[in-house]
């Protein structure tokens, strides 16, 4: 595993470019978000997706999510009504994953097999934003929770030790405050709270 030490508030452009190149080359990357460390891979990368599924021991019915630079990137992969867009706009960037109906442009392996949905998230983390800007497209993201662990890993040195021969690259930005994202399902007629996380549900604007 290659480790890059990137400044949490002022990411070095040269190193961000290396992360984007690794993602483009179908590598599985571990990077910081505004809630915790997470896995990232390029949309459509079978090689990186298979590694991710193997590491996390994910079932086929797992709900995947895309990390987006801003709301303008969502339309290609998720169907958004005017009302849904208002909710998204009022609550991003934030540690909230919104579940939306997937479009046909989304690779079938990423959509929920039964519900045909995809998670969408816009982060505020400077490193995550810099990577997304460099990529010019959303990336597949997945929380860094290992099968034998109950909580998200927050120490990059522990992550390196546990996954040094499984993931391809680690962005070390120091120890993160580990919180889970709040998950809101907007795929039905009524918004539904799926998981309470970093954001108090009462502060979400509907």
Describe the structure.
With 206 residues, the protein is of the alpha/beta class. The chain is 24% helix and 23% strand. It is built from five helices and eleven strands; from the N terminus they run βαββαββαββαβαβββ. Strands 1, 2, 3, 4, 5, 6, 7, 8, 9, 10 and 11 form an eleven-stranded mixed sheet that branches. The termini are far apart. The mean pLDDT is 91.
- Strands, total number: 11
The averaged pLDDT comes out at: 91
Report the sheet-strand fraction.
15-25%
Straight-line distance between termini = 42 Å
Sheet/helix structural class: alpha/beta
Within CATH, the superfamily carries the name DHBP synthase
Secondary-structure element string: EHEEHEEHEEHEHEEE
Helix share, percent:
10-25%
Key traits:
206 residues, alpha/beta, DHBP synthase, 11-stranded mixed β-sheet, globular
Question: Which SSEs are present, and which pair or pack?
Answer:
Blueprint: E1 2-5, H1 13-24, E2 29-32, E3 37-42, H2 46-56, E4 65-67, E5 78-79, H3 82-90, E6 96-102, E7 117-121, H4 126-135, E8 139-143, H5 156-163, E9 169-172, E10 182-185, E11 192-195
Nutshell version of this structure?
It is built from five helices and eleven strands, in the order βαββαββαββαβαβββ.
């Amino acid at each position: 595993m290659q480790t890059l030490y990137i400044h949490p508030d002022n990411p070095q452009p040269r190193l961000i470019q290396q992360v984007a190149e690794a993602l483009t080359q179908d590598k599985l990357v571990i990077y910081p978000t505004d809630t915790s460390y997470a896995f990232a891979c390029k949309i459509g990368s079978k090689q990186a997706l298979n590694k991710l599924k193997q590491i996390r021991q994910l079932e086929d019915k797992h709900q995947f999510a895309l990390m987006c630079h801003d709301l303008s990137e969502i339309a290609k992969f998720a169907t958004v009504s005017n009302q849904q867009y208002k909710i998204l706009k009022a609550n991003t960037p934030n540690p909230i994953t919104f579940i939306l109906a997937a479009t046909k442009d989304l690779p079938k392996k990423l959509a929920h097999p039964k519900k045909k949905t995809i998670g969408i998230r816009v982060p505020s983390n400077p490193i995550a934003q810099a990577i997304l800007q460099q990529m010019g497209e959303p990336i597949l993201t997945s929380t860094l929770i290992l099968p034998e662990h109950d909580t998200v890993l927050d120490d990059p040195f522990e992550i390196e030790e546990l996954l040094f021969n499984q993931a391809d690259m680690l962005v070390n930005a120091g120890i993160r405050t580990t919180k889970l994202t709040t998950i809101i399902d907007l795929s039905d007629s009524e918004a539904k709270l799926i998981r309470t996380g970093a954001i108090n549900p009462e502060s979400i604007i509907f």
